[in-house]
Design goal:
single chain, about 290 residues, 10 strands, about 20% strand, globular
Length: about 290
């Protein structure tokens, strides 16, 4: 069978979770999918494991962050659809059927889809708070598989976070992830903003596409970029303005939104954002990207 989606997974010395992530794809998918892993460093055995498993991969000797990793994996994509997934996520049954059904209902490729995350600790308006463990040792897989659809969640607006899916043509039009956000903070909303600029208005989170997110917080091991400031100075608005006024994050999903019209609240927020950006520039606020190879 030809693979349906190409699933790209950046990983940085997180082998136990990566193994579980890949196992969930193989166990809980209705169709075959191409799996591509970017191995950052890989000195924990990840590189050898990926080779032994015969999984498509790219590799750098050092951690180059999410953005460059994803763009490198794009060169190996064999299907029309790219799904970005964190290595500490566990895909649940029905995830790819929900994605495929949504794609078949759309008239074109101008869309961006997200699944719904179930998390043990941090609550999201677009997610589900339910604890099935936050480590390999405490993970209650059997109970999760019994209960994951018992938590009510409808479709929602404002797709941004992984698991996220788009057509490869839209990826190429906007140039994938912007590497100036290395190691990756705020690269997700930046990609959303680029897709919005390219004419995408169908930003949809699927309530029936579910994934368990362990929240291992691997980003705590890196020196973070000031992504919120970079986003503001690049786009002239804050990330919160993008989500609240343009993609309407978390609102119930009915029809596509018409957010091209400037409303008084949006004009007010644009002005406040530009004033904030001007103050940052005048005060010499440091916001530049981080070189991961330093």
């Amino acid at each position: 069978m030809q693979p349906r989606f190409s699933i790209i997974i950046p990983s940085w010395n997180n082998l136990p979770f990566l193994k579980l992530c890949v196992a969930s794809i193989k166990r809980n998918s209705a169709a075959d999918h191409q799996i591509i892993i970017h191995v950052n460093d890989g000195s924990d055995g990840t590189l050898q494991w990926v080779k032994d498993e015969g999984i498509d991969y790219t590799h750098t000797e050092q951690n180059v962050g999410v953005c460059l990793s994803c763009n490198m994996m794009r060169t190996l994509v064999k299907t029309d659809y790219i799904l970005y997934l964190n290595d500490d996520m566990y895909l649940l049954p029905g995830w790819d059927t929900a994605m495929a059904d949504e794609i078949s209902s759309l008239p074109d490729n101008r869309f961006y889809l997200s699944g719904t995350m179930i998390q043990p600790h941090n609550y999201l308006d677009v997610g589900i708070l339910a604890d099935y463990g936050d480590s390999i040792e405490t993970f209650d897989e059997e109970r999760l598989l019994r209960e994951y659809m018992s938590h009510p969640k409808s479709d929602w607006r404002g797709a941004t976070w992984p698991p996220s899916l788009m057509h490869r043509d839209m990826w190429d039009i906007v140039g994938g992830y912007s590497i100036e956000y290395t190691p990756g903070m705020y690269s997700d909303p930046d990609l959303t903003a680029k897709l919005y600029m390219a004419g995408v208005r169908h930003f949809k989170g699927l309530g029936n596409c579910r994934v368990y997110h362990f929240e291992t917080k691997s980003t705590g091991r890196v020196r973070r970029n000031n992504g919120n400031i970079q986003f503001l100075l690049k786009w002239g608005i804050t990330n919160s303005v993008l989500r609240r006024h343009l993609t309407h994050l978390g609102e119930p999903m009915t029809n596509d939104i018409d957010s091209d019209n400037e409303t008084p609240p949006l004009r007010k927020q644009r002005l406040r954002s530009r004033l904030k950006a001007a103050i940052m520039l005048l005060t010499g606020k440091q916001f530049g990207p981080i070189n991961p190879l330093e």
